[in-house]
Specification:
Layout: H1 2-11, H2 17-32, H3 37-48, E1 54-60, H4 61-71, E2 75-79, E3 81-84, E4 87-92, H5 99-112, E5 120-123, H6 129-132, E6 137-140, H7 145-151
Parallel strand pairs: 1-2, 5-6
Antiparallel strand pairs: 3-4
């Protein structure tokens, strides 16, 4: 994941913010087709019961924020890249692309909102294991083989 994120960040270098926004919208529209229908229902279920809903993903913030809006989550935490004068540099502002970074980002989010421990955390890959361990009720959802084995 680390090398993927670094190369992904480098590929944005020199692109204008408006160009990346258009790319993100195109990626979102294509990826939205592969989103499990139940995902939207699951977020709705928790929102209706007063839970705070958060997407935390190593994905590009520009795409993840579109998913957050579509799913109607309260917050989204994702990989951020530096933008100077409306142009992307190749500098990463977050380290959420690492398992430890994802966990630390969630811990900071919870601390800033004075939440001691998340009740539910859903994860689909081994990269989510650290955040799943923070939860009262960790749930492997549509899990890859490695996480599925651990969950069982």
């Amino acid at each position: 994941m680390d090398s993927w994120a670094v190369s992904w960040g480098k590929s944005f270098k020199g692109l204008k913010k408006a160009t990346v926004a258009k790319i993100a919208k195109d990626v979102f529209l294509k990826a939205k087709k592969d989103l499990f229908h139940e995902s939207k229902e699951l977020v709705r279920f928790f929102n209706e019961r007063g839970f705070l809903t958060v997407i935390i993903s190593a994905g590009a913030s520009e795409v993840i924020y579109l998913f957050s809006k579509f799913l109607k989550t309260d917050f989204a935490i994702a990989t951020e890249l530096e933008i100077v004068d409306s142009v992307y540099t190749d500098k990463m502002l977050t380290n959420i692309h690492t398992s430890d970074g994802k966990c630390k980002s969630l811990e900071n989010f919870l601390e800033n909102r004075k939440i001691e421990k998340p009740f539910y955390v859903f994860g689909d890959s081994i990269g989510d294991l650290a955040i799943l361990k923070l939860a009262e009720c960790p749930i492997a959802l549509n899990a890859d083989k490695e996480l599925s084995t651990i969950a069982k």
